[in-house]
Amino acid sequence: MKSEMSTHNWLNIIMRCVMMILGALIYTVGLDLFLVPNNIIDGGVVGISLMAAELSGISFSIFVVLINLPFLYLGYRAIGKGFILSTLFSIVWMAVFSKFVHNYEPITTDPFLSAIFGGIIIGIGVGLIIRNGGSLDGAEIVAIIFAKKSTFSVGEIVMAMNLVIFGVAGFVYSWNSAMYSLIAYFIAYKMIDVTITGLEESKGVMIITDADNSKDIADALNAKFNRGVTIMYGEGGYLKQPKHVLYSVVTRLEITRLKDTVYEVDPTAFITIQDVHDVFGGRFTKDGH
After folding, report:
1. Is the pTM higher than 0.90?
2. Which one, 4, 28, 123, 201, has least CB within 10 Å?
3. Cα 78 to Cα 87: distance, rounded to the nearest angstrom
């Protein structure tokens, strides 16, 4: 049993490494074949490194590793070595891929198309890396550290830093480049979410019903959706009557059918629905089998 668990853990680590390498390659393709040839940059340390390479003539690959190192050191002390090692692994692979990919001809020289498709591609690459436990930018590490000591969220801090970087890009390249960079950044931001959560987003459903109806609702959900249902026991806060709370996870496309099923049994049931990013174990499968 211990040997099987050890093998499973190693296979999991290897798969994560492969996915982070793939993410770094996809990101580099978007950066070097769409954005950079059209003077469009990404945010964070990558954006700083691109501008430093433009002004100095020194390779971007060197800058992106060197500038990230102090941030990685701070993160190692404040966050933990697992995330930092995964981030360093991804950054090194991105730097290696960049040495080769930038020698190819750009896919398009239209800056608007470059911003759109470059943003989509780098968003997919970053999303794959984040989904597997890493990152591509030391700026996010700084944001995580500052967020713990301030009232601002990580996203707000990253946005503020990137707005400054894009403002500087207006002087290094042009204001058109800065605005295209902002468009690419917002597209990439949305694609990161899509890559992490998936297009077929799962929904966590909580159903509050009278105790007499809970078994019938659970049986109906089991029969129609082949989903596990957990029943919790509670009490109404106002009338102090016993209530049962049912919890299950379904796909986005099944929400309407689920509501119809519940209200056939109990028209007065109270239903809440939340986004669920990842589902592991149990009887949940996206095809319902």
Report:
1. no
2. 4
3. 14
